[in-house]
Amino acid sequence: MTLIDREPNEPVSAEPGGAQPGGGQPGGVQPGRAPAPAGLRRNALGTGGIVFMVISAAAPLTIIAGVAPLAILVGGVSAPLAYTVAGIILGIFAIAFMALTRHVRSLGGFYTYITAALGKAVGLGSSLVALVSYNALQIGLYGLMGAQGQALLANEFGIDVPWWAIAFVGIAAVFLVAWRGIDVGAKVLGVLLTLEALILVVLAVVILAQGGAAGITFGSFDPANLLNPGMFAILGVGFAAFMGFESTALYREEARDADRTIPRATYISVIFMAVFYGFIVWALIIGLGESDAVQAAAENTAGLVFAEAGHYLGAWAELVMYLLIITSVYASQLAFHNAINRYTFSLARDGVLPKALHRTDPKTGSPVASGVLQTVLAVVVVGIFAVLGLDPYLQLLLWVNSPGVIGIIVLQILTCLAVVVYFVKHRHLERRWYVLPAAIVAGLLQTGVLCILCASYDLLTAAGPVINAILIGITPVTFAVGVVLALVWRRTRPDVYARIGGGSGSEEVAA
Prior knowledge:
The chain is mainly α. It has one domain (47-499): Amino acid/polyamine transporter I (Up-down Bundle). It has 18 helices and no strands. It has helices at residues 47-58, 60-75, 79-99, 110-118, 120-157, 163-179, 182-209, 229-240, 258-288, 293-299, 304-313, 315-349, 368-387, 392-425, 435-455, 458-461, 465-492, 494-499. Helix 14 (392-425) runs antiparallel to helix 15. Mean pLDDT is 82; it is low at 1-38 and 503-511.
């Protein structure tokens, strides 16, 4: 019996690194067995810390200031519903997703859950998709950081700095904070997230207090808007705003009382983002006036939210928002960097990636080897775009980010299927009656969203059909490579194949 097949209340031997599943204290060294190497830092995160991690990954201010104007331009006054609908669908998904966390305890998020239900070949394919997707989401943001930082320094201080220089500084800052430990990162993210959320809430409250441009109206929430063609076109944008919320499961080994902390953090994150995005975008439309919102977004898409801040709060708010959007991007990069490192750490522990990537800093417990690899990859990608003279926003951000959105949605669909298969195969396991219906409904809805997103992919990439086809093809090609690799390893490296998905139970991969 492997670790994933155990009953919830059955005693389980220590996980790699000497920790009990769910974030317990390290156990003692067993007779005849060498002491386990240092692992991730235990009991370092509570519910709040994990919430800050995953919401920061979504970068609320970046979504509102950088993407919401596009949603208003395409979807009109129905734009707030795109975020609300996406939040409802992902909330249903979270119910199914969290049901597996009680039974599949190995570190690895989507990778381990999919492996447990759908097999090692599908699991390895999913793990590579996750690595590529999270890296794409994180590294693409350096284009936005560079572009926004360059514009801020030039417009406000008259200093001309290349965008790539700002991006390289950001890469170094992300690595250094992550190296200090997950608890330090959570505190930094907590401060940055609070500041960016606060400026948006203040703006929304002032807009409503002043009655907006033409009074407070509720046309955005007319149910008829659900059938608006523009609504379907921007639904993918709504889903992109939640990217990273599912990474709560990656912090299981570092969470206090993980069986409670992880689900709470997941539900809080989804609910907060659904309500927050919908409310703020609605307030922005009120500030512009329902009849004038689309025209205003067309005339000043990139600067729409900054202009509203300046109009309703004053010039100081516009400057503060420009500063905070850079810290928002930084917070998102730090959160994704931490998630990527834990995926890499998990795969190295299972023997899929080189053992060196399983090493952690003995003082901070951070997976420093994985962090170095991710940092080097970011430097290489940013460097290539800089040398080729490509645009940091239109190409580095949009082209690199977009495959990540596709990949995460595909992983969520596979996870829904995994929930159904897992509980059908393990009928004796305790579960709520609504878990399987939630998995089926979420899976079908997300498949529809994926089709809509691919059909309107140019909204995310601002590219032509050839580039779009290449970007969309990255996910299926990556998945296929993982599946083929697993099938080859089943014959040539059976020991590694057996450990895919944490299937070795408590067996440690020597560092």
